[in-house]
Write the structure tokens for this entry.
Amino acid sequence: MASLQLRRESSMDQQESPRSPEAKLGMKVEDLWGVQEPKLSPNEKLNACFESIPVSAFPLAPQGIEIKSDASLAEAVQILAQNKILSAPVVDVNAPEDATWIDRYIGIVEFAGIAIWILQQSEPPSPRSPSSPSGTYFAVSINGMTSAVGLGTLGPEDASITSGDFFEALTSSKFYKNTKVRDISGTFRWAPFLALQKSNSFLTMLLLLSKYKMKSVPVVDLGDGKINNIITQSAVIHMLAECTGFHWFESWGTKKLSEIGLPTMSPKEIIKVHEDQPVLQAFKLMRKNRIGGVPVVESGGKKAIGNISLRDVQFLLTAPEIYRDYRSITAKNFLIAVKNYLEKHDKRSPMLSGTVTCKRDKTIKELIQTLDSEKIHRMYVVDDDGNLEGVITLRDIISRLVHEPHGYFGDFFDGVLPLPENCRV
């Protein structure tokens, strides 16, 4: 009873003075929560609340960065890295001034798409394809990249293909500098991309970010034909972290991970890379399994010594000189080199926090607060001995917040799904 009273008082304090735009949004959910039918389950109540709030109510992200379709990959990487963002919409430079949003944008370019391009460049050429003077293999067709067959599994014996000068050769190549963003449109997640209107509901947005695996959702203004906001999984987690104290959040957030079925995988299902494998193997696994990151595990053991995510490809592209002295760029060498680089250039980077782990008895609220404060996208679940037991991503958390009602989307995806044949992300 005392605990319930404390939560009510905390909620009342926030209603009097929301500490942030996200908390103000949480207050709207709180008001709706209180008038829902008593017979509804807590999960059904949350669904009803989020269905009643338009996506336009979500706090605006900082001024959006757009990349022109005729920008080179090198320029796109610099823009993403300098602005510390993982993706950006691509504007068609040939679109007329009065173009609608669907004609103005050709998609969203991500570090994920660029990582895929890198993997394609590292594959051996066919007998008809000449190799470059640097010895690095490239497969580029007149319309962009040709399809790739994959690198296979890379082990310690494959160190020669990822020697320290591998990425210096790649980033100094004319292919990397001259290939345009529009040329890798096949690596975009959607074609052109899936966007919401301001009137669409919060529930729609949350389902796209969870069940439908979108990392970000653009919100367009039909009036001026431009993107008004971009809502990411991280932004949703930050919103939830700001809603601590509200009754609707506490009723869900105080549950333990095991109570809501997290993590969703068994230890044997964890996709990982060993510390002595080439770092390209980590990115290959992410590409093949369509995931955003993998743990780096000690050789012959089950303990994680670090994490490599798709966004970390920026360190291979923007600072390749930090690997110059390595005979091979193993996963462990990659982690060490990046850590040394960040200690000199960006001491606030999440990568300097080391591997962040938790146990199954952690609450969803505690997990959200840690993910938000550490600015990370996944948490590794370990046992009492520190051995990996599972992985929990931002998408996993959002998927436990809402569910898709039967027939909810109707014909919403017409013209969008299935994904185009050349989409690899």
Notes: Residues 1-15, 126-151, 417-425 have pLDDT under 50 and may be disordered.
